[in-house]
Amino acid sequence: MEDSPQRAVQGLGSFPWYVGGTQVLGLACVVITGVWMGSYHGGYAWDGSGQEFNVHPLCMVLGLVFLYGDAILVYRVFRNESKRNVKILHAVLHLLALIISIVGIVAVFDFHNHNKIPNMYSLHSWCGMLTFVLFCVQWLMGLGFFLFPGTLMALRSWYLPLHVFFGLAMLAMSLATCLLGISEKLFFSIQHTYSQFVPEGILGNMLGLVLVAFGILVGYVVTREDFRRPPHPEEEALSVHFKTLTEEGGSPNSP
């Protein structure tokens, strides 16, 4: 029993390395995507051409993978900050991810419409749209349950495990959708030379591996017990105050 706090402290010694690893991998995902679309597919534009399509993968990796992963990590990284401030940062990062992903979705629909290509026919597009819709629902539910003061504590306690589970599940869905998109793009672009280990194919495959590594490392940091945010005195005081009010028949909405 006495060794548990010591083990937790020792475990925290490796915490910055794990967090740093997530940032290196996340940035690598964005950079590799940018290089792939920039070097092999002509760069970026907003004119209905293939260069507008290139905006789509870059925005989706930046928004629904890197920024989304960072939004999940903030409760582990900012362990000693006010919980309300961390909640706000969590919501803001999700909002940035939402805005950037909307730009990416508009880009691909605009490209398809401009070039008379059907929309929403592939498994990649179905998984991507499902992930995006669930992401929006998750963000709105999080705002309603955790940032607005009128929500009952009992409802927050009921919803919190669902919020955490679906947060990680949707990161996994985002990564799976990216892997489908990478395979789809490679087959469309280099179908006849892919099996010859051409540089573009290797780069796309490497991007897929880095995406998987990012997701695994984020999941590990978030689920490892040693890295959990410790309870803070003022938060425990509020919890005790709430329990006292409910036991005495007071209003659970009181501050």
Describe the protein.
The chain has 255 residues and is an all-alpha fold. Helix content is 78%, strand content 0%. The protein has nine helices and no strands. Helix 2 (15-40) runs antiparallel to helix 8, helix 4 runs antiparallel to helix 7 (153-190) and helix 7 runs antiparallel to helix 8. The longest helix has 38 residues, at 153-190. The chain is globular and about 60 Å long. Mean pLDDT is 88; it is low at 236-255.
Query: How many β-strand runs?
Result: 0
What separation lies between the terminal Cα atoms?
Answer: 36 Å
Number of helices: 9
Strand content: under 5%
Percent of residues in helices comes to over 70%
Strand/helix succession:
HHHHHHHHH
Unreliable segments of 5+ consecutive residues: 236-255
Report the biggest beta sheet as strand number plus sense, adding barrel if it closes. none
Average predicted local confidence, pLDDT = 88
Structural class designation: mainly alpha
Radius of gyration: 21 Å
Inertia-based shape: globular
Summarize the structure.
The two termini are 36 Å apart. It is built from 9 helices and no strands.
Question: What are the SSEs and their pairings?
Answer:
Elements: H1 3-12, H2 15-40, H3 50-53, H4 55-77, H5 83-114, H6 123-147, H7 153-190, H8 199-223, H9 233-247
Record keyword descriptors for this entry:
single chain, 255 residues, mainly alpha, 9 helices, 78% helix, globular, disordered C terminus
